[in-house]
Amino acid sequence: MRVDDLYSQRTKYFRTSEIRELLELSQRPDVISFAGGLPSPHAFPVEEIKEIVERVLSNDYATALQYGPTPGLKIFRETITEYVKNFGINADIDDVFITVGSQQALDIVGRVFIDAGDVIFVSLPTYLGAINAFYAYGANMVGVPLDEEGMRVDILEEKIKELKKKGEKLKLIYTVPTFQNPAGVELSEERRKHLLEIAAEHDLLIVEDEPYSMLRFEGEPIPSIKSMDKEGRVIYMGTFSKIMSPGFRLAYVVAEKSVARKMVVAKQSMDLCAPTFTQVIAKYYVENGYLTRRVEKIIEMYRKKRDIMLDAMDEYFPQECKWTKPRGGMFLWVELPEHINTVEMVQDAVKEKVAYVHGRAFHVDGGGTNAMRLNFTNPDDDVIEEGIKRLAKVIKTRM
After folding, report:
1. Of 39, 166, 202, 372, which one is least surrounded by beta carbons within 10 A?
2. For each of the chain's 399 residues, which pLDDT tens digit applies?
3. CATH number of 234's domain
4. Could you give the CA distance from residue 102 to residue 240 in angstroms, rounded to a whole number?
5. Which CATH number is 373's domain given?
6. Where in the sequence is the domain holding 168, given as residue range(s)?
7. Considering Cα of 125, then 224, then 74, then 257, what sign does the dihedral take?
8. 57 within some domain
9. Is the same domain home to 217 and 325?
10. What is the distance between the alpha carbons of residues 98 and 372, in angstroms, rounded to a whole number?
11. Do the Cβ atoms of 98 and 117 come closer than 8 Å?
């Protein structure tokens, strides 16, 4: 069968995830992996979920085991409207809908807003899942450098003006403002305000992806971009994957009502409804204080892991290397001397039984070939230092 002749034109935009392929290399039990963006399994609220599941199956089985509406269960969306007040967001229930992970939300954004050739602005580096989701709809992604204060909005403004002169169709700005994946940096409050001003001036949407904002180890919280939004141009995404369980695949979107409605219609043909069972569990988890208590423990756990990694890097990494020092989240970003190719170095690292993700995976412009992302939350405390020693050996050999 000549199946190649039957694929849709859209499949030419599909790309495999470099991280998923790299993870296969790092799944060997003898490899210390800093590659995956995985929470620690020790952070999972096993006992709390056992208790909640028993309550749900005793009292709420008729709702939890039944089909649900596409936007999500009303009782859970009401919970979300209260929960997002933690981020300064005042939302009505019609502004909120539930998705099967934030990745589905990104795909819906692509489905609803992106035509082939449309310009999407992202940071350099940016989240690989967003790159793949937007690329699947033919987006023309334009990268904007970042520094320790996040995306360089001054450069973003220049690029917007330049592309508008060329007659390009500009659609949206994608950002992970808090403890960004992969760099771990935080967009300053001043830049958040400026970003919103730029979007208003040029009539663009902002997709604010916030998986890590609850995982703050130090410093004062910065207001979400959505909390400053007076025109309904920010699509806000949150998830329970990092503070409850990634296996629940439970996330949510807050958007202006008409936008949310259009996105829900798009979602309807994808899955009909998000799992009702996990929604009911999460409702109890949030409303009965389990979440607050668990996040406190997760922060303590992850802060320690970050510090172990940073201390080990200070001790073992060559002085020619530089890296971010995140105030929260799950990742840090390392830049090596320009002549070192981290794409090629992956195989060397696996031979030394350590794994990372090379920086090119997070760049839409082919850059990042001398950089890498390291995850500090998944490895056990007692192997982090040894993993950094192995990685340092690989780097020094290359140098």
Report:
1. 166
2. 788 777 777 777 777 666 666 666 656 788 999 998 899 999 999 999 999 999 999 999 999 999 999 999 999 999 999 999 999 999 999 999 999 999 999 999 999 999 999 999 999 999 999 999 999 999 999 999 999 999 999 999 999 999 999 999 999 999 999 999 999 999 999 999 999 999 999 999 999 999 999 999 999 999 999 999 999 999 999 999 999 999 999 999 999 999 999 999 999 999 999 999 999 999 999 999 999 999 999 999 999 999 999 999 999 999 999 999 999 999 999 999 999 999 999 999 999 999 999 999 999 999 999 999 999 999 999 999 999 999 999 999 999
3. 3.40.640.10
4. 9
5. 3.90.1150.10
6. 62-290
7. negative
8. no
9. no
10. 33
11. no
| Rounded-to-integer distance, Cα 74 and Cα 303, Å | 35
DSSP 42-104: GGS-HHHHHHHHHHHHHHSHHHHTS---TT--HHHHHHHHHHGGGGT----GGGEEEESHHHH
Start-to-end Cα distance in the chain: 50
